[in-house]
Design a protein that fits this description.
The protein is an alpha/beta fold. The protein folds into two domains: 10-204, Rossmann fold (3-Layer(aba) Sandwich), CATH 3.40.50.2000; 221-341, Rossmann fold (3-Layer(aba) Sandwich), CATH 3.40.50. The protein is built from eleven helices and 14 strands. It has helices at 36-50, 68-81, 83-107, 120-129, 145-151, 160-172, 184-193, 235-247, 263-272, 288-292, 309-316; strands at residues 10-13, 16-19, 22-26, 55-58, 113-117, 135-139, 178-181, 202-204, 221-226, 254-257, 279-283, 295-300, 321-323, 339-341. The strands form three sheets. Strands 4-3-5-6-7-8 form a six-stranded parallel sheet, with helices on both faces. Helix 7 links the parallel strand 7 and strand 8. The chain is globular. The protein starts with 9 loop residues before the first strand and ends with a strand.
């Protein structure tokens, strides 16, 4: 999280009065949701508000167009014909309407501003419409957004859409004014892939969460995990672990927080393994930390994470963490300190 100091509105720099820039946050995602990106934005805005720094959130839904929702809805029909085409449709039109909304927002800016993009599509839209505003992007994605879509089963690795997503990243990122990495892992991955990024201003700032004071209480359940129910998050592995433990006489409860395309498959897997009475699917929760607090242990079985903000949320609630040492997770969880490591999932 970028450090935000107390704002005075203006600062003296060499005797001149310099106005703090507005922070214009650009994202193709909705304002509210269960992803780590949305948690990052919510926390940033909360800290900025406390520090007296103005922020504006701009999404594709900020655009004023009667065609926006019909165009977005058409993706469902496109996806039925071709999943890669559905990915292209989503990225193209969300980027288009975000650019429209950003352009309108930047035209009304009366003082200095900086655009803080949350993904390469948002960064590309910002570069296309900015005038003098610097554009900085935070790297949330895991290796490449192309790999994220492939992991969801929406496109094949090496296909045309996969290649075009990676090409966009390789075109956009070196043209930015700066990069914020949430882990050293992702900085190393991207600088190895795009050596030009080594000359770009960049900094590693781990995600953070707000501290919440809660009354001390005894846990009422055993294990909890949080994340979208999709292949990369690999919750099925945790169900297998639970079943193996039950066979050895250890019956643990598990709360699965989150929703997604794998929910039905995971519910069927839990039933097949005889875990119906042990596993609770809580669905999307606007405040997952409230549920985490009543558990003994947080488990994270994702195959890849650039950071894993849910790990920090769990630790903030006093839970030890078990997680596979993949991606940026070893920078968050040190075995024997914040928790322990799982074998490769």
């Amino acid at each position: 999280m970028t450090a935000i100091g107390p704002a005075s509105g203006r600062q003296d720099v060499g005797g001149a009065q310099v106005t703090d820039p507005d922070i214009v946050i650009a994202t193709i995602m909705r304002e509210v949701g269960g992803s780590g990106v949305q948690s990052h934005v919510e926390t940033l805005r909360s800290f900025a508000h406390t520090a007296g720094r103005p922020t504006t959130l701009v999404t594709p839904f900020s655009a004023s167009s009667p065609l926006l929702r019909p165009v977005f809805a058409a993706r469902l029909a496109v996806r039925l014909v071709s999943r890669p085409a559905g990915v292209w449709w989503y990225r193209h039109w969300h980027g288009h309407y975000l650019g429209t909304a950003l352009s309108a927002r930047l035209r009304t800016t009366t003082g200095p501003a900086v655009v803080y993009a949350q993904d390469p599509v948002s960064a590309s839209a910002a570069l296309a419409v900015r005038t003098t505003e610097p554009v900085v992007m935070v790297v949330h994605f895991n290796v490449s957004q192309a790999d994220e879509w492939a992991d969801k089963g929406e496109l094949p690795r090496g296909g045309r859409t996969y290649a075009s997503i990676r090409a966009l990243e390789e075109d956009v990122l070196p043209r930015l004014d700066g990069l914020v990495y949430v882990s050293q892992f992702m900085r190393s991955v991207l600088e190895d892939r795009m050596p030009a990024l080594r000359a770009l201003p960049g900094i590693v700032i781990p995600n953070c969460v707000a501290a919440i004071e809660r009354p001390a209480s005894e846990p009422v359940a055993d294990l909890v995990t949080v994340g979208a129910l999709e292949p990369r998050k690999n919750q099925g592995y945790l169900l297998e672990v639970l079943a193996a433990a039950a066979q050895r006489g250890h019956r643990y409860s598990l709360t699965v927080i989150g929703d997604g395309p794998d929910r039905g498959r995971l519910e069927r897997q839990a039933a097949r393994l005889g875990l119906t009475g042990q596993v609770s699917f809580a669905g999307y929760q606007a405040d997952p930390r409230r549920l985490m607090a009543g558990h003994r242990l947080y488990c994270h079985t994702a195959r890849m994470e650039s950071f894993g903000i849910a790990l920090v949320e769990a630790m903030s609630e006093g839970l030890p963490v078990l997680a596979a040492p993949v991606g940026g997770i070893p920078e968050v969880v040190r075995p024997g300190v914040e928790g322990g490591g799982l074998a490769a999932c």
